[in-house]
């Protein structure tokens, strides 16, 4: 069984935070109710909040965090039709996430520069103190 799945869809599927996905309703696979024929097997679009190894924490499009974690095997990417309201909102959301990522990266670089500058100043002061100690010893 696993061999067939790997041949059909080889490789690891990784979803990014903010990406739209749908969740497969595997509870309908094991029920004998007639209703299951009419119920959708895939959920409405959800957004990936963050990744936990091979599971994902999801949120609704309104930003409400869903309970539980969802295995990557139960998820598939959802691509909204171009020109729809959902597509526009998704583009805005992705831009916002990218801006936040850039701000965080920039902040870390500034922190790194500040740390390096402080370390070089400390090293310079240590060298000066060593030189003064050597002069006093002579």
Automatic annotation (TrEMBL):
Q: Which domain of life is it from?
A: Eukaryota
Give the Acidic residues compositional bias ranges: 127-138
Spell out the Basic and acidic residues composition-biased ranges. 86-115
Q: Where is this region: Disordered?
A: 86-138
State what protein this is by name: Uncharacterized protein
